[in-house]
Design a protein that fits this description.
The complex is a heterodimer of chains A (216) and B (621). With 216 residues, chain A is mainly β. Chain A has four helices and 13 strands. Chain A has a nine-stranded mixed β-barrel with strand order 1-2-3-5-6-7-10-11-12. Chain A has a two-stranded parallel sheet with strand order 4-13. In chain A, a hairpin with a 5-residue loop joins strand 10 and strand 11. The longest helix of chain A has 8 residues. Chain A is globular, with a radius of gyration of 17 Å. The two termini of chain A are 28 Å apart. In chain B, a hairpin with a 4-residue loop joins strand 21 and strand 22. In chain B, the strands form four sheets. In chain B, strands 1-2-3-4-5-6-9-10-11 form a nine-stranded mixed beta barrel. The N terminus of chain B is likely disordered. The longest helix of chain B is centred in the last third of the chain and has 23 residues. Chain B is α+β, with helices and mostly antiparallel strands. Chain B is built from 17 helices and 23 strands. Chain B folds into two domains: 270 residues, Beta Barrel (Lipocalin), CATH 2.40.128.20; 283 residues, Ribonuclease Z/Hydroxyacylglutathione hydrolase-like (Metallo-beta-lactamase, Chain A, 4-Layer Sandwich), CATH 3.60.15.10. The chains are: A mainly beta (216), B alpha+beta (621). Chains A and B meet through helix 1, strand 10, strand 11 and strand 12 of A and helix 2, strand 9, strand 10 and strand 11 of B.
């Protein structure tokens, strides 16, 4: 998974490329959440120093941009986004103690080898050496409330984000990273919110241009 | 009582045998298939529905001129902008199926199951069934090859799969022209789709990569998701019969917008407050760089406007020619006892049976000996009849050799044999009268001796009704089609090809309207099995075998081009002005040519000429 990846906005294009207030389509919001989403005002967020609410863990991977994925250490995978300049840390070992809630939350990672795993335990770097035979599963919680979509659909600090990362390689050599997410939020959603997103592997850091949440 | 037990036992055995045949399509040696995997990857079985956002953003509910995120080329954009939703009222469009991967975006139920060889428990195939249009896909896992390029296409296509770890990767070819999005964005019949299926608990994520050399500038990849249903819904069928939607409308009316005259081209962008450039799609809309492309709003608007009219250098077909060019004759059963022989110029059709062989067209003649050998493998009896659908040398070049290799025993011993020496010692060649005349005029070898003029010519041969119909002033004034009624195969000659614009020869009596009439005549005789798939099969003059869908698409194209050229003529345009207006712009990537015997400009000139000065007999039928 390490390297540079670019988001390919082949799915849910309008919602991701041009989010507008009230255009939350089939997101399973409850009435309270709808009221919040209908009053979304990005300028107000920026003025309050909360422009990054739309770049929280549930939404940042859906925003068109690029990722840089590296191992911070043998037990921690790091994802840096150029959109919003966010950093996500996936811990294969113990989660850091006393970490305060923030928009990226606390992410516990494990290799999910499913049927392809013939038993055994796999941890951290090298755990998925078998290539595309397994998934990276990441469960994130302890998130500070933010937006689940870029257009002000809220999530609460009760939310749990479950992500699966899968790699596939085309015969042409093109590599894709498929991200399957489930956002459970009993506060604002009547059922889980599912999304599928994907990225294409880049050869280098070309066009990886970190821009902060307020566009600066 | 013992008799009853024996009978029941026999029925059970018979049932088991039938069941095994149904479940083991890959085990047949004729498929050349190996064994499938014993241990498969992730189990995908069950009942599923699409995740909500998928149905919201990717299905028929999509807006007109909403092309963002699709790396479509200029031709595809113009195709989509000329498409009105009322196109769906045309008879052959009412029940069109869903191609892969659009199959997964219907707001409907899906069922997935596996089929295993009952004797080895190897995985033979995955089956995907979609409620809308009763999409029925088989993904072969036993290593069988994809069919040859000249084989028919379907909405489901032909799929093979393999596991990469837990990911099922499916490759699909032989797709019909269908949707990328149900707002007119086309997916061509030259497309290859690769789908990756990953299951996590009660979700399946599908990443589909659409590689369409005709309409996309780079492969379109998009992810979607299925959600497992705990209870199997009891709603799986999708009956669809087409019918008249608008009484009195002629069959040569196909709704379309002239270039630059789609009144809804901006509606979506304006309503959603999007830059028009973004809404019109293109590769830059699929990546983060879109933000750069629309930063200068004036420049973006001007570029968008330019993209709503034909521009750029002339395009040529990007679809591979399915005709074999290895110097061999390739034989394929089409239906019943009717076969395609491909590889020597125009397609050759052969019907065989106890009486002999009935051959439609004889190819260029360069490989005539191999054609004769291929027919001999199909029939121990001689070639009795040859029918030429046109006089062109690539259809009649093998006449002399095939005629001499055959015999017509219906003549031998008849009163003809008393009048003509050697009567019946060779095959009888049949054609429409004008085809004979043209061949004699042009001194082409072995012209037909048995002709018909305005009425159909019919025979009952090899236990099958065979009808030949003259098609006045289509590509020439001597075209015919042949319908083998039991096999339900129509041999269309050059009236229909899958490789080029129709070769309308105005000097020899061809006309665009006669060509459109001929295609509609074919469509009046065809019946599909389900949702524009199967049923009556068509052997074109050139290219791959089809069913009625491709004939309807070809007819639609010619009607749309006719309307554009007619509008130019009405406005007083000269031929040069008409050529400059690029009336075939959105089809050139599929059928165009800038060199060779039949270029796009030659076709447009034939259209212009025959619309300005139509032959008096073009509507004779």
């Amino acid at each position: 998974m390490t390297g540079y990846w670019v988001s390919v906005v082949g799915e849910d294009w309008r919602w991701r490329a041009f989010p507008t207030r009230g255009d939350y389509g089939a997101v399973p919001l409850n009435q309270v959440a709808r009221q919040i989403a209908d009053t979304w005002d990005p300028a107000k967020d920026a003025a309050a120093g909360e422009a990054c609410k739309a770049f929280a863990a549930p939404s940042v991977m859906r925003i068109p941009g690029r990722l840089h994925i590296t191992w911070q250490d043998d037990q921690t995978l790091k994802i840096e986004t150029d959109s919003g300049k966010q950093t996500r840390l996936f811990y294969f070992g113990n989660l850091p103690e006393n970490k305060v809630e923030d928009l990226q939350g606390s992410s516990k990672a494990e290799w999910d080898l499913g049927n392809a795993g013939a038993g055994g335990l796999f941890f951290g770097r090298g755990g998925a050496a078998a290539g595309p035979s397994g998934s990276l599963k990441v469960v994130t919680n302890r998130m500070k409330p933010g937006y689940a979509t870029r257009n002000g659909v809220p999530f609460s600090n009760n939310a749990t984000l479950t992500e699966y990362y899968d790699l596939v390689k085309e015969k042409s050599g093109v590599e894709y990273l498929i991200l399957t997410t489930t956002l459970d939020d009993p506060t604002y959603m009547s059922q889980p919110m599912w999304t599928a997103t994907h990225f294409k592997k880049q050869g280098d850091a070309t066009n990886f241009t970190p821009v902060s949440c307020d566009g600066k | 009582m013992k008799t009853i037990y024996l009978l029941v036992g026999a029925l059970l055995v018979a049932g088991a045998t039938i069941g095994a045949q149904v479940q083991t399509p890959g085990a047949s040696p004729e498929n050349g298939a190996g064994l499938g995997p014993m241990v498969a990857g992730t189990d995908l079985s069950g009942s599923w529905r699409p995740q909500q956002l998928v149905t919201e953003s990717q299905t028929a509910a999509g807006d007109l001129a909403d092309f963002g995120g699709i790396p479509l080329n200029d031709a595809a954009r113009m195709y989509a902008l000329s498409w009105p939703a009322s196109r769906q009222t045309v008879k052959q469009h009412q029940c069109m199926g869903y191609v892969t991967p659009y199959f997964w975006y219907a707001p409907a139920n899906y069922r997935i199951w596996e089929e295993r060889d009952p004797f080895t428990q190897r995985l033979v195939s995955w089956r995907f069934y979609g409620q809308i249009a009763q999409g029925d896909r088989t993904v072969y896992m036993d290593g069988r090859p994809h069919p040859p390029a000249y084989a028919p296409h379907t909405f489901a296509g032909f799929s093979t799969g393999e596991y990469q770890g837990n990911t099922l990767t499916v490759t699909t070819t032989h797709l019909k022209r269908g949707w990328i999005k149900a707002n007119g964005v086309p997916q061509s019949d030259a497309t290859t789709v690769v789908e990756h299926f990953v299951r996590h608990g009660d979700n399946i994520t599908v990443l589909a990569v659409i590689d369409d050399p005709v309409y996309l500038t780079e492969p379109l990849s998009k992810a979607s998701m299925l959600v497992r249903m705990a209870k199997d819904p009891d709603a799986w069928l999708y009956p669809c019969d087409d019918s008249e939607q608008i009484f009195g409308r002629k069959s040569d009316v196909v709704p379309n917008h002239l270039f630059g005259q789609n009144p809804y081209a901006r509606e979506y962008a304006d309503r959603r407050k999007l830059p028009l450039l973004a809404a019109l799609g293109g590769v830059e809309t699929m990546y983060p760089e879109l933000a750069n492309a629309i930063r200068d709003t004036t420049a973006a608007e001007n570029l968008a406007k330019a993209r709503m009219m034909p521009s750029g250098p002339p395009a040529v077909s990007r679809a591979p020619d399915p005709t074999p060019k290895d110097g061999e004759i390739h034989t394929m059963r089409v239906s019943g006892e009717v076969y395609l022989l491909a590889g020597d110029g125009a397609n050759i059709a052969v019907q065989v049976g106890p009486q002999g062989a009935f051959v439609v067209d004889t190819g260029s003649g360069k490989l005539a000996d191999k054609v004769i050998a291929a027919i001999a493998k199909l029939s121990a009896k001689p070639i009795q009849f040859i029918l030429n659908t046109t006089f062109r040398p690539d259809h009649t070049g093998g006449n002399a050799k095939l005629q001499m290799a055959g015999a017509d025993p219906s003549v031998t011993g008849s009163f003809f044999s008393m009048q003509f020496q050697g009567a019946g010692l060779a095959a009888t060649i049949i054609s429409q009268l004008n085809t004979q005349s043209r061949m004699v005029e042009q001194k082409l070898p072995a012209p037909p001796s048995d002709t018909f003029a305005e009425d159909r010519r019919r025979k009952y041969y090899n236990g099958e009704a065979v009808e030949a119909f003259p098609m006045p002033n289509a590509t020439t004034d001597g075209d015919s089609i042949v319908h083998f009624r039991r096999a339900d195969v129509i041999v269309a000659g050059d009236i229909f090809t899958t490789t080029e614009y129709p070769h309308i020869d105005t000097k020899n009596g061809g006309s665009l309207q006669g060509e459109i009439n001929a295609l509609n005549f074919i469509l009046d005789r065809t019946v599909y099995i389900h949702d524009e798939d199967g049923g009556t099969m068509i052997i074109p003059g050139h290219g791959r075998v089809t069913d009625e869908w491709e004939v309807a698409e070809y007819r639609d194209m010619l009607v749309i081009i006719r309307d554009r050229v007619q509008a130019m003529i009405k406005a007083g345009a000269t031929l040069q002005q008409t050529l400059a207006s690029r009336p075939t712009f959105d089809y050139d990537v599929r059928y165009g040519a800038t060199s060779g015997p039949w270029t796009t400009n030659m076709f447009v000139e034939a259209v212009y000429t025959s619309l300005k000065n139509p032959p008096k007999t073009e509507n004779a039928r």
